[in-house]
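User: Fold this one for me? It's Major facilitator superfamily (MFS) profile domain-containing protein.
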Amino acid sequence: MGTIPDPAPVLDRRYSKPPGIQLLEFMKKSSISFKTHQAIVLIVTFLAYASYHATRKTTSIVKTALDPQSLEVSLKTFPWQRAHLQRQTESKRVSWVLGSGWAPFNGSDGTALLGELDLAFLFVYAMGMYFSGHLGDRLNLRIFLTIGMVGTGLFTSLFGVGYWANVHVFYYYLIVQMLAGLFQSTGWPSVVAVVGNWFGKRKRGLIMGIWNAHTSVGNITGSLVASVLLKYGWGWSLVVPGVMIAFIGMIVFLFLSVSPDSVGANADEDELHSLKKTGEEVTEPLLRSRLDDNESAVGFIEAWKIPAVAPFALCLFFAKLVAYTFLYWLPFYISHTAIDGKYLSNEAAGNLSTLFDVGGVVGGILAGHISDHLDARAITAASFMYCAIPALFLYRSYGHISMTVNIVLMLITGMFVNGPYALITTAVSADLGTHSSLKGNSRALATVTAIIDGTGSIGAAIGPLLTGYISATSWSAVFTMLMAAALVAGLLLTRLVVAEVGEKIHESRSRGSPISRSPTVEVERERSKSNVRLAGDELWECKSLSDPLSKPAPAPDRKYSKPPGIRLLECMKKSSVSFKTHQAIVLIVTFLAYASYHATRKTTSIVKSALDPQSLDVGLKTFPWQGSQLQRPVESKRVSWVLGSGWAPFCGSDGTALLGELDVAFLFVYAMGMYFSGHLGDRLNLRIFLTVGMVGTGLFTLLFGVGYWADVHVFYYYLIVQMLAGLFQSTGWPSVVAVVGNWFGKSKRGLIMGIWNAHTSVGNITGSLVASVLLKYGWGWSMVVPGVMIALIGMVVFLFLPVSPEFVGANADEDELHSPKKVREEVTEPLLRSRSDDNESAVGFIEAWKIPGVAPFALCLFFAKLVAYTFLYWLPFYISHTAIDGKYLSDEAAGNLSTLFDVGGVVGGILAGHISDRLDARAITAASFMYCAIPALFLYRSYGHISMTVNIVFMLITGMFVNGPYALITTAVSADLGTHSSLKGNSRALATVTAIIDGTGSIGAAIGPLLTGYISATSWSAVFTMLMAAALVAGLLLTRLVVAEVGEKIHESRSRGSPTSRSPALKHLGDRLDLRIFLTVGMVGTGLFTSLFGVGYWARIGVFHYYLLVQMLAALLKYGWGWSMVVPDLMIAFTGVVVFLFLSVNPDSVGASGDEDEEELKEPLLRSKSDDHVEAVGFIEVWKIPGVAPFAFCLFFAKLVAYTFLYWLPFYISHAAINIKYLSNEAAGNLSTLFDVGGVAGGILAGHISDRLHARAITAASFMYCAIPALLCDRNYGHMSVTVNIVLMLVTGVFVNGPYALITTAVLADLGTHKPLKDN
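Assistant: Here's what I get for Major facilitator superfamily (MFS) profile domain-containing protein.
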C-alpha cells in the first residue's frame, strides 16, 4: 500500500553469495540463518571431499583386474605362522576370480608398474598440495574447488576411457594419473579452510571428527561403485566416479559459502566476531585483492614456523603412509589372501575392504571426541598410532583364520590407523591455521592445511610405492614396514605429548594447591597454557613449588645436589671432595659407563659367527689380481668343527642379510634416539637419565640372550629387542660427553678426551673377550653377562656421578670455569630441570645445527662411523671366515684377534687428540687420518691373509687411522662446538651438539653394517671398496674447514712478521683462491686421474669400483680406453703448466691499470680479504641476483641434452644402421664430432644474435624450442643416409649447444657483474 519496502533484500546483495544461496533466500523471502549456513557448508564440503576420495579409491579396486598377481606371494607370512596357511586351493576357482589382466599391468612387473602409478599420482598430489594451499589463501575457494573437482572428474574418466580405446601404453595412464593428482590437490586445503572459517575451536574436534567421515564414506562409495561396475568392464569403475565428482563440483559452485564474511552472516553464534552490517556489494573475482582484506595471507615459510606445524606434518607423513597403503592395496591384498582357505572375487574383496573405512569413521569421531574432552590433540594422536601397531600385527597374523576374525580385526585396524590421520588433517590443521601466534589473522588456514597434508601426502606416495615392490616378495615385510611407520609417527609427537602431559600435571596441581604463587610463576603458567600444549616449544616445568615457610637445611654440605656416593665419601673423609678429585671421579665413572655401553654393543658381533656359520667361499674372494695368493688347502673337517651348525633363523641362506637387518634396526633406532636424547640431555638431570639408559640397555641385552634358553627362533623377537636396546643405548654418548665437557676446559680437551675416549676400544675389547670366553658355554651367556655388567655400572653412575661443578658446589677456577655461588638454599633434584633454576636456556635443535662447524663434522662422522661400525660388527665374522696363512680361526680366536683393531683405535684416539691440541687444528687432523685410512684398508684386505703377524700389524694400523678421527670428532670437537663462541657463554648446548654430531654419525653406523650384510654375501672386496670410498668422502667433507685452518696458519705465520691483519675465514674457493694456481691444480689433477683410468688397460684391472673411484676423483677436479684416455690427459696436464706460466687472472694482478694497482702483487694461493677493497659474494646472495635462478635451471636441462649427446652420441651412431650399414667405433667417433662443429656455429650464432637484439633470454629460449624439432628429425630421418645424418646432426648441434654456450659465457658474465653487486 505505499509502505516502505523491507530493506532485507538490499542487505542480501551487499555480500558475495553463491547463486544457490541467493535462490534459496529468494524462495524463502528471508535471509538464511548462521546455523543453516553451517549446515550447508558441512553437507557440501562433505559431499565434495567424499567424491574426491571416491575417485581416488577406484584405482585400488581396479588393480586386481589390471594385474591378477600370482597367489604364491600371499602365502608368505610371519615365519612361525606359515603352518596355518597350508590349505588346499581350487586352482580353477582362483583362475576364474582373477582373470587375465590388462597389458601392460599383467606382466611380471605389473605390481611395480601399479606402484609407480600410485607414486606418480601421490607425488604430484603432494607437490600440488603446497601450491594449492598457497593459492587457497589468495583465491576464491568456491571457484578454486569447483575447478579442481571438474578437472579431477575429467582425468579420472580419461583413465577409464583407456578400456574402450584399448590403450596399452603405460605412459598414457601415468600422465593421466599425474594430472588427476594435480587437480585432486585442490580439495583438502580448500574444504578445511572453509570449515575452519565457519566453526570455532571449542567444538572443532568432535564436529570435524564426524565431518571427516567423508574420507571413509568416499572410500566406501568408491569401493562399492567400482566393485559393482567391475563386472561390466573396469573402465566403468573409473568413468562413473569421474562423472559423479564433476556433478558435485557444480553443487559446490552453486551452494558453497566460503566464510561468514563473504555472505554477511552473524558469526557470534560460534565464537566468531560479529560482522559489520553495512557496506557496498562485494564482487567476486577469482583472485582476491589484498586491499579487500585487513590482513594479508601468511606466507609458506611463515606457516612452517607456526609452533607444532612441523611435528604434526612429519607425523602425518608416516600416518598417511600407513593409511594410503591400505587405501590402495587392501582390496588387492584381500583378493590374494586365502580367508578360511578360500579366495574372494575382486568384487567381494572390494566390498569387504570398505569395513576398514567403517572403522576409520569410528576412529575419526572417537579421536576428535577424546581430543576435545582431554584438550590434548598430541596425546590422542600418538596413543592411536601406538595402538595401531598391535592391530596391524594381529590383522596380518590372524586375519586369514575366518571371515569373522578378519572383519573384527579390520574394523579395529581401521579405527586406530584412520583416527589420528583424521584428527591431524582436520581439527589440528584448523587449530594451527588459527594459532595465537598469527594474532588473529585467519588467512593461514589453507596454507597450514596444505603444509600438513602435503607433507603427509608424500608419505602417502611412498607407502603404496614401496608396497608395490615389497609385496612381490612377502606381505609380512609390508606389514612390518607399516608397523615401523606407525611407531615413528607416534614418536614424532613425543615432545608435544610431554608438553601436554606437563600442562595436565600443572593444572591438576594448581587446582589442588592453595599456595599463592609469585607473579613470575603466574605469568609462566599463563604462557604455558597458551603455548605449551600445541607448540611444545618449552618442555613443561616439573618443579616443586617450595613452601615459603620452609627453613633452609642447616648442613653446609647439603646446599648442593650431590650424588649419594659423593656424600658418603665426604662423610667418611669428614671434608669436602676437591675439584681435582671430582674430575677424576667423573673421568673414571664416565669411562666405565661408556665402556660398558660398547661392551654390550660388541657382543652381537662375536655372537654372529655362532648364529650364522656362513659358507666359507665368500671369504676367499679378494681383489681379482691377487686371487692366486689364496689358493691354499683348507681342512674341511676343521672348518665344520669351528663354525658349528648355527641358530635358526640366522643359519639359513639369508642368515647374513638377517644379521645385517638386526644391525641396521639397532643402529637406526640408536641414531634417531640420539637426536631426542641430546635434546633431553640438556634439559634433564644427566645422572638419572644416564642411569635409566644403562639399566634399560642391560635389560634388553639380557633379553636377547634369554632367547638361547627359551629356544626362541622368531626373527622379530630379536629385531624388537635390538631396537629397544638401541633406544636405551642412545642415552649414553650425549650424556657422558656433556658431563665431561662441563668439567674440563678447552685447552686440554684434545689430549684428555683422546685418552678418555679409549673407553670405546676398552669396551669393545672387554665385550669381545667376555663374549668369546663365554661362547663355548652357549651364546646366550655372551649376551646375559654383559647385560648384567652394564646394569651394575649404571648403579655406580647413580651413586657417584657429579653432573657439573655447579651441581656439587665445586670451585671450577682450577680449570677455566667460573666459580658457582656459595650461598643458596638446598637444591632438590627432579628429573626434569626447571629453566628458572638456570640463567640460560638450553639451545634448540635447529640453533645447534647452525653453530659453525657442526654440519661438516656431523656429515664427516656419518662416513667415519660407517667405516668404524662395519669393523665393530663384522670384523670377528670376517676373520673367522677368512683363511689366515691357510687356516681358519675359531669363533673365540677370531673374537680375541679382533680386539687388536680397538687397541689401534686407542692409540689413534690419543694420537689424534694430541696432534690436534698441538696444531690447534681439529679439521686438518681428522681429514689427514681419514685419508691415511684408505691405503690402510686396502693393505689389510689385500695382504692381511698372508700371515698372522702381517694381519696384526695391518689391523693395528687400520684401527689407528679409522678410530682416530672418530674419537676426535665425538669428543674434543663435540665439546668445542658445544661451547662455541657463537653461543655467547651458554653451556646448555653440549648434549644437543653431541647428539647431533653422533646421531648423524650413527645413521652411517647403521648403514655400513647393513650394506655389509648384503655385499659380503658376494665379495668382501666390494665391502672394503665401499669402506675406502666412505673414508675418502669423510675427508673431503672437511675440505672447507681444512682450507680455513690452513689459511689461518698462513695468516698467523705472516702476521708475526707483518702488521697487516688478515681474515682466516674462507667461504668459497673460486672467489678466494688465486685462480691461476687453482686452475693449474685442477687441470693437473684431472690429467692424473683420467690417466689412471687408462692405466687400467695395461694393469688388466677388472674391478668396477676402481674405475668408479678414479672417475669420481677426475670429475671432482674436472673422458676411450688405454691410450685414448692417457694421451688426452697428458695434454691437459701439459696445458695446465702453460696456464700456470702465462695466465693473468685479471688486470689488477698484473698491474695493467696503473691507477688501480701500481705495485707488484705477491701471489699466495690463499687470498686475504684485506688485499681487496671488496668482499667475495656469498653463495646464498649469488642465488638472489635477478636472473641467476632461472638461467641456472634452464642450464640444468640444456646440459642434460648436451651431455647426453657428449657421452652417448658415438655409441648411438655405432649401434644405428645408416643407410643399412653399421659404422665402426672409429668412424662413429669421427662422425660424432660434427655435432660439436654445429655446436661451435650455434654458440657463435647465439652470442651474435643476443648481442644484436640485446636479449639473452629470448635468444636462449628460441634456440631451445628449435632444438625440439631438430631432435625429432635427427631421430626419425638420420638413418636414411650419411648426408642426411650429417646435415641433421649439424643442425641439432647448433640448436642444442647454442644456448648452452650462451648461458655459460655471456649470461654468466652479465650476471656476475650485475648492477646490485655495485661493481663487486
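One thing worth pointing out: The chain has a mean pLDDT of 75.
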